[in-house]
Amino acid sequence: MGKIRVLPEVVASQVAAGEVVERPASVIKELLDNSLDSGAQRLEIEVRGAGTALLRVTDDGAGMDREDALMALERHATSKISVAADLAVVRTMGFRGEALPSIASVSEFTLQTRLPEAAVGTEVLLRGGKIDRVRDAGCAAGTTMVVKSLFFNLPARRKFLRSAATETAHLDRVVETAALAFPGVSFHYIRDGRTIYRLPSVAGAAARVADLYGVEAQEELLEVPQVVSGGIKVSGLVSRPGVTRADRGRQFFFINGRIVENSFLSTGIREAYRQMLEPGRHPVVLLYLEMDPALVDCNVHPAKREVRFRHGGGVGKAVQSAVESALSKVRASWLAPVQNHVVARMDSRAEPVVLPSSTGAYQPELPRPVVPMRTAEVPPISSVGMAEASGVTQEEFRLVGSLSRRYLLLEGPEGLVLLDQRAANLRILFERLRRGLEGGAVASQRLLAPEVLELSPRDHQAVVQNLEVLASAGFGVEVFGARSLKVEALPDFLAGREPRRVMEDFAEECLAGGVGGRGAAADDAARRALARLAVGLDGASDEVEQRLLVTQLLGCELPYCDPEGRPVMLQFSWRELDKKFGRS
What we know:
The protein is α+β, with helices and mostly antiparallel strands. The chain has three domains: 9-199, Heat Shock Protein 90 (2-Layer Sandwich), CATH 3.30.565.10; 212-330, Ribosomal Protein S5, domain 2; 380-584, formyl-coa transferase, domain 3. It is built from 17 helices and 25 strands. The protein starts with 8 loop residues before the first helix and ends with a helix.
């Protein structure tokens, strides 16, 4: 008896906070949701110390009187729902009444608020969820919420936060997402005393994209005219064919103003862009969906980002239809240069190929490119003269052939060797980058004219943090403003690439891999990001290039694994092969 007991209020609040307040970015999201629900048209957000020292959101919304201000800090107290049936028709960003008390329980929290018609406002101060002081305050109409010393009473939670750069990137992402969701609201974002964004209220998403990412980024997008399908309205912006990114970091889906994630939405985009994307590339997407709240359930996860649809297939088809309507206008102009390029490279004796078009097939018969044939004059590959540090013996490897341009088959003295071409290229390029310009390992090619690029704050910071690594890798890049870079040269292994795409992809690789800080480990992480950026999925199809690849690999210090630690070569001994085939 007596083993089960009710948790103290403070402990219960901290348990609830663990579900709602995952990191500083979770806090800023909840505060922004409350401000937007209050009808705010102007928002000022300030963060310090990656969000652990200070988070402040000031709005010009409806405000509260003293009674409501105190009630808002009680658990499960909300003005947005009153009965269970309201959960089926949620139209607000927040609705559970958990955020403010959860945040207050793990921080030093201050709430200042005033109704527009009131002569004086109210200030409530809490520490660790307990009210410390309630008093009158002279403040502007609206609400200001201040969070200091986040997780001061949960040192374990604070200890497991990621690096300052990672947490700051999550904070930037939340503000960026809210600004895209509500282009009619002005945002002023201050980080560590420096203004990052000052975004005025604009009429549409295109103008907001130009303010956030630059006019060049906005010009690469197509407007998606509003399409109504099955009671779902879809509008927004998507990238033109050929304008892609290395990840889905620029894909945003908003349902009734809420940023969401759902596989049906991603499937709709993938189907709309079928046959138009390179492997591993993703389009830029900014879509706004409006639907009956009864058709979507946002009460799935504490973060309210994952949703479920009553008719998910219909939502995916509505997205696909809307995006296809925008892409169809440029499809013909996009195909023309592709067809001309293919025709110019074809051997007229070969068979026709199928090119992407609005109907899925291209009618004129176009021939297939001729694949270089293997020649008998190619001598065997030798590791003679390679560095002893690699541990490779002075034995010869005979190239047997390739599998699907991904793997090479080699015959060695001990048996069969299977070599991953992409992993080999990653290892070779990584070691070239480690040697840097001093050893002549990387050649630099100057652009005909320097290009000045305006990047998002996150991407700009990721590039600036790795300027030394980029310089040693053959880049000519310098800071040209708060959000701008001047690119004068690219390394030989990226020659011909578009500088903007190179810089954005490198930044995304760094952010996705958590690259940040200083030191040898951080520099190697940046070099791995560059190698991934430069090396494609397919290997060489020509035997001369394949021999050169193996020779260069055997000259590496560590030829048996790629920079991520994955194997480059797998060996199957003669004994193992004989055993598989039942030979004595």
